[in-house]
Design a protein that fits this description.
The chain is mostly beta strands and about 130 residues long. The chain has a single domain, classed as Domain of unknown function (DUF427) (Metal Binding Protein, Guanine Nucleotide Exchange Factor, Chain A, Beta Complex), CATH 2.170.150.40. It has 1 helix and 10 strands; from the N terminus they run ββββββββαββ. It is globular and about 35 Å long.
């Protein structure tokens, strides 16, 4: 799966974990090592997810564009969510629209197929490299 912010691909990964939460779209989590260097700037803002613990938020930067709180990582995961350790998600992976970015929305993301509820791994390459 690949994620583009503006004109820059910021994630290229074949090691994707999809999180399926009831009533929400699946979210793709990528290993931090598959995110382009300097694309994520740690922020000071944190929140608490009711099931996954503390969530640290990042500003995403690429080229001349940036967006605050556009990526996140769960930093104090409970044992049942260990597959998400060391992984980050972006707003585009949450929407997974696969559409081209517009001037007001710089995100695009190749989209995995649907999966049953729960957490699943989706090792794949769905866009040309």
């Amino acid at each position: 799966m690949r994620v583009r912010f503006g004109d820059t691909w910021i994630v290229d990964s074949e090691d994707v974990v999809l999180l399926h939460e009831p009533g929400r779209y699946p979210v793709a989590y990528f290993p931090l090592g598959d995110v382009t260097a300097d694309a994520l700037q740690p922020g000071e803002h944190t929140t608490r997810h009711r099931d996954l613990g503390t969530t640290a938020w990042y500003t995403v930067r690429a080229g001349t564009q940036s967006r605050q709180r556009a990526a996140w990582q769960h930093t104090e995961l409970p044992n049942h969510a260990g597959d998400l350790k060391g992984r980050v998600a972006t707003w585009s992976s949450a929407a997974a629209t696969g559409s081209s970015p517009t001037p007001s929305d710089p995100w695009s993301c190749t989209s995995p197929g649907s999966h049953p509820a729960g957490t699943s791994r989706a090792p794949m390459s769905t866009s040309p490299r």
